[in-house]
Amino acid sequence: MSKEGNNLLIAASGTGGHIFPALAIAEDLEKNWNISWLGLSKRCESDLVPKKYNFITLNIESPKKRNIALFLEYLKIIFSAFEVAKIIKLKKISLVFTTGGYISAPSIIAARILGIPVIIHESNLIPGMVTKYFGRFCNHILIGFKDTSFFLKSSKIIFTGTPLRKQFYISNDLPSWAPNDEGPLIVVMGGSQGANGINEMLSESLDFLLHNDIRVIHILGDSKEIDRRYKNNRNYFQIKFTEEMAPLIQNCDLVIARSGAMTINELIKTQKPSILVPYPNSKNNHQEHNAMVLASIGGAIIINQDKKAKYVLKSVLLEIFKFDPSKSKRTYQRLEIMKKNMKNIKNLNSNLKIKKVINNYLNDL
Q: 67-79 and 104-114 helices cross at what angle (nearest 10)?
């Protein structure tokens, strides 16, 4: 099929929770669509979006001020719809796909003004402000969790799940650089909104974990290195960032992480138990609601980030990795129960479902 006339504008900006689902879908669509990407110049998408997608930026920022200044920031976002409309006309866009966040609002408004179909994907359980107020103007709202439909009564909803990177749909070996002893493996990560809180919590537990031959892969993000004395331990590995998330999660025994929608869906896909630390500044406490999806079925334990969090984490790890010394082989009963509970969640091929919805808008020329 020719791509002529099939011009897709992807509007995704801000956190990994908005960008990575859009990237996953873009890979599946590029065979049939000419893709342009609308983002912001000072956000992480400027580094993440491949050059093969025509990257265009808007000069707006997420509202952070208060009172009249906040109102003016919102007005600037709304009026940027006219700039988006010019881009849609110039690129002859035939469909807009967006993943929430403030860049979605002007994109939806512009598409409606020009009569262009628009689809939004909401990955969080509690929909964001843009999805809540502008989703009704979209042709479809694709939702990552079934229960999100309760918050979007007047919209055209399709439950698709959240798309993941291709590496999560194939079996991967543990990377060669990972600790290769026989003990349980924990992957610790903080997500795109910062890992400082989790890094500080972990420091209290490292002595216990390493003393009991438990391997730890610690993804630091942009945070500073924690106590350097652990760096030479054969069972502990620090890394700033890695593209090999699927190989790590698929081959680990436990994940300690934030509870962004992408992380929750990666855990569902790999059926891995977790300790989840919701980002305390997430809007509408959406990370806590996301975490409850797994905690409610016994596949995750939630720890709130506060002054006592590092001691709570150590207590939870002591419970999870408690074993019966009378048995010849170490077995961790609590961990095995969590693993079993994770296997009860149904997996979706979200990428395929979303691809079908979007490709329904292809022009057969």
A: 40
Distance CA 59, CA 76 (A): 9
pLDDT digits (tens, 9 = 90+) for 3-23: 888 999 999 997 778 899 999
Q: How far apart are CA 40 and CA 6, in angstroms?
A: 24
- Burial classification of residue 327, based on how many CB atoms lie within 10 Å of its CB (0-12 exposed, 13-18 middle, 19 or more buried): exposed
Instruction: Name the strands in the sheet holding 140-143, side by side, starting at the edge strand that comes first in the sequence.
Output: 54-58, 34-40, 7-11, 95-98, 118-122, 140-143, 157-159
**3-state SS, residue 75:** helix
Of 26, 77, 14, 32, nearest to 54 (Cα)? 26
58: helix, strand or coil: strand
Find the length of the chain.
365
Q: And the tokens for 243?
A: 């593209």
Give 328-331's long-range contacts (Cβ < 8 A, gap of 24+).
none
**Model confidence pLDDT, tens digit, residues 270-281:** 999 999 999 887
Residue matched to tokens 């890979």:
27
d(CA 188, CA 256): 5
**pTM assigned to the model:** 0.89
pLDDT digits (tens, 9 = 90+) for 121-155: 999 999 988 999 899 999 999 999 999 999 998 78
Helices (H), the chain: 16-29, 45-48, 67-79, 81-90, 104-114, 129-134, 196-203, 206-211, 245-250, 261-270, 286-295, 309-320, 333-342, 350-359
